[in-house]
Amino acid sequence: MATLLTAFASVLLLAVLVSSLANRTILSTAALFLVAGFVLGDGALGVLSVRPGDELVGTLAELALFAVLFTDGMRVGWADLRTAWRLPGRALGWGLPLTLAVTAAGAHFLLGLGWVESLLVGAILAPTDPVFASALVGNEKVPPRLRQLLNVESGVNDGLALPFVMVFLAVAAGSDDLHLGALGLELGLGVLIGVAVPWLAIKLEQTRLFSASTQYEPLNALAIGLLVLALGKATHGNLFLAAFSAGITVATFGARQRESFEHFGELIAELFKLAALLLFGALITPSLLGSVGWQGWAFAVLALVLARPLAIWLSFLGSGLSVREQAAVAWFGPKGFASVVYGLIVLASGIAAGQQVFQIVAVTIVLSILLHSSTDIVVARWFDDEREMPAWYGLARRLRRGPENRAENRAEN
């Protein structure tokens, strides 16, 4: 534990020191933690020796995904979904299942997996990670509808993909109708806890008897999240659907709680995510990267450059998005942290194809993190008009205005 804490603190300090540079270049903090984990793991230096079945790996991955889904849900209250549903609805209603289907077809025909296992791979790799699209979402020169589309889609699709992962995993494990019924109860109980606990807590805080001070306001949503986690554990409800539902409920009924917790919550989720990425990198060894063969690497490439782009192209036919906007949405379908945890869940499940599914998922995620995290700045600059125009363009444009606009020309200079 001391070794892991030292490694994480050291890499975190390095990430903080280079974060400003990372915001301006292709350097990525997520890739930094992934590569650091690989270098420190058994595949290289052997400083961090972890196994997929280690309790620490499972616990950290569980807590990290809970925090990520809770904060993701908080980005998309029902009011946000109602006012901005047209484009994200296409991406989620059509793009997500189409991405799942195309990815599953590739896994079946290229890797020889059975259809259930292939659909499981498709469900794991269907969600996108908002971290790698941050350069677009945070760039004011990117059209607002595109930024909103990427933000809402990436915030919702982790939670939407989860039921598919759980159902396909249950079928792959040979579950009968009784077990599938128990799975449905687990998922439903998770949603119930995720809605009821935040709603009751917010309503209590809005009564005359209770009022949170400014100092403690950010802890309100944290307390709600911890209570949802504890009740989910105690009742065996699905923690991840509970987290996602809780986030949406807070965003819907507690605008003040959402606003006060937003920055604090994102930092907590980011810490958990980076720690889990460090451990995930330590699980990646040269033998794992080589065990998938050329078919595995070919599948990883096709999953990134064919499945998502094809699904987005079909989903946005007649949407009014420009070619440039569609290209940006199509490329920024990175496989991120949710896919990491879903892959670990499959590995721990004991299904016959669990090891192969995890290896394929791991290779695809590694390739995605390296490619997408190094191209977000480049794609964001497509929308920077000043970068697109040569230096002489501004002068020529002012000369064409003629003498009647000299005052405006001087003002521009």
From TrEMBL:
<keyword id="KW-0050">Antiport</keyword>
<feature type="transmembrane region" description="Helical">
    <location>
        <begin position="329"/>
        <end position="351"/>
    </location>
</feature>
<protein>
    <submittedName>
        <fullName>Peptidase</fullName>
    </submittedName>
</protein>
<feature type="transmembrane region" description="Helical">
    <location>
        <begin position="56"/>
        <end position="74"/>
    </location>
</feature>
<dbReference type="GO" id="GO:0005886">
    <property type="term" value="C:plasma membrane"/>
</dbReference>
<dbReference type="Pfam" id="PF00999">
    <property type="entry name" value="Na_H_Exchanger"/>
</dbReference>
<keyword id="KW-0813">Transport</keyword>
<keyword id="KW-0406">Ion transport</keyword>
<dbReference type="GO" id="GO:1902600">
    <property type="term" value="P:proton transmembrane transport"/>
</dbReference>
<keyword id="KW-1003">Cell membrane</keyword>
<feature type="transmembrane region" description="Helical">
    <location>
        <begin position="267"/>
        <end position="285"/>
    </location>
</feature>
<dbReference type="InterPro" id="IPR038770">
    <property type="entry name" value="Na+/solute_symporter_sf"/>
</dbReference>
<feature type="transmembrane region" description="Helical">
    <location>
        <begin position="94"/>
        <end position="116"/>
    </location>
</feature>
<keyword id="KW-0812">Transmembrane</keyword>
<keyword id="KW-0472">Membrane</keyword>
<feature type="domain" description="Cation/H+ exchanger transmembrane">
    <location>
        <begin position="13"/>
        <end position="375"/>
    </location>
</feature>
<feature type="transmembrane region" description="Helical">
    <location>
        <begin position="357"/>
        <end position="379"/>
    </location>
</feature>
<feature type="transmembrane region" description="Helical">
    <location>
        <begin position="180"/>
        <end position="202"/>
    </location>
</feature>
<dbReference type="GO" id="GO:0015297">
    <property type="term" value="F:antiporter activity"/>
</dbReference>
<feature type="transmembrane region" description="Helical">
    <location>
        <begin position="297"/>
        <end position="317"/>
    </location>
</feature>
<feature type="transmembrane region" description="Helical">
    <location>
        <begin position="30"/>
        <end position="49"/>
    </location>
</feature>
<keyword id="KW-1133">Transmembrane helix</keyword>
<dbReference type="InterPro" id="IPR006153">
    <property type="entry name" value="Cation/H_exchanger_TM"/>
</dbReference>
<feature type="transmembrane region" description="Helical">
    <location>
        <begin position="155"/>
        <end position="174"/>
    </location>
</feature>
